[in-house]
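User: Predict the complex with LLP.
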Amino acid sequence: MNTRTTLKINENGHLTIGGCDAVDLAKSFGTPLYVMDEQYIRDMCRVYRDVIANLYGGNGLVLYASKAFSCMAIYKIVEQEKVGVDVVSGGELYTAVKAGFPADKIYMHGNNKLHSELEYALACGVGTIVVDAYSELDVLDAMAAERGKIQDILLRINPGVEAHTHHFIQTAKTDSKFGFSVSDGTADKITVYALQKKHVRLRGYHCHIGSQIFEKESFRLAADKMMAFMAEMKQKYSFIADKLNLGGGYGIWYTEEDAKVSVPQYAQYLEAVIEEIKAKAKEYSLQEPFLLIEPGRSIVGEAGITLYTVGAIKEIPGVKKYVAVDGGMFDNPRYALYQAKYTALLANRAAEKATEVVSIAGKCCESGDIVCADVSLPKAETGDILAVLSTGAYNYSMASNYNRNLIPPVVLAKDGKAEYIVRPQSYDDLIRNDVIPPRLQS
Ligand code: LLP
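Assistant: Here is the predicted structure with LLP placed in the model:
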């Protein structure tokens, strides 16, 4: 599955998503606008869920990493697809809980969880907390004791596999603010420490080796290293980990560069991992652990597009042409942050061939405010509707009100109908929490 199966071009030459004409969407809802294809999200949940059901006897759970895109409706959709969630902040937890998401299927992450966040997680009955610090273990143990409960936890471990898109490396020394390393013995030590605690119950381990990864072998290797570590913990401390969470990271299609290497075969990533876990369980005489994975980007990334209206167009002779849109780094900071690459097209002339290479500029007062650099487009004109593809992950979730621009609304498209799942902001929203102290009021 990839973007090209969810997007089509209709008889008017317009781009469609979820059966909706993108030009009509731009007219009805305005731009900039995030559009999410509901069916795509559901299909991706099912791809992962089915592999666990068919190849692993259902002994596992897919967790949607909601940092990729968090709003109340998404928690409803993934709940209906029998998928759990991973949250990384009190805010994500609050959003999930307000959407009625079952707390026992929530896994709470964070390398520096606030006391208030841990209190809130315990009060909500969050199923599992993925612990990432000694101090967190101490605090959590004390808080659980106060409440007379025992909290299930996993420990975040660094297996020494670092993956970057199309390659991966094994590292002995891991420099990361996340997790405890297997190679330097800290993963072993935190295990011993956690096992001594009376009000937390260590259920197993978590790792996450990176994001936007296409290399199947890196996931397999991480599974291999985690199983070896679990075998070691059993042998040394008779500790049997019954849960293994291998994080997310499955890469998605942004540009033809990605497609050339491989159109992501999501099921195959998980098949490789399951094969490895089964083999290692046999080799080490371990029970097969309950398997968790945390895909974020691959569930929502290709489901989303962003629609903009083309405004000013500026050609700098011999240098480049800028096509400015009514959005920018406030709705998509990924170019500014990572020089991320995207594919763009004119939604109102979607069948036209690209004739020039331009940079899509945003409207923020900052030269680095580019939405995508060097994209091929037909000759764009003011008023065209520009669609940027694969923006469903880490766009809305990383949006800001920089320059007091309004964060665009999100609509959910399905079967030719679209409705808001995040309403538009207003200027009043921008000043809602502003205060002018009396002494400034003269
Ligand atoms: N689990 C953990 C513990 C994670 O840290 C992450 C992502 C995921 C799961 C989900 O990974 P995914 O399947 O989405 O790759 N803002 C960056 C991405 C940061 C990812 C952080 N962690 C971007 O826009 O590319």
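DSSP finds 14 helices and 23 strands in the chain.
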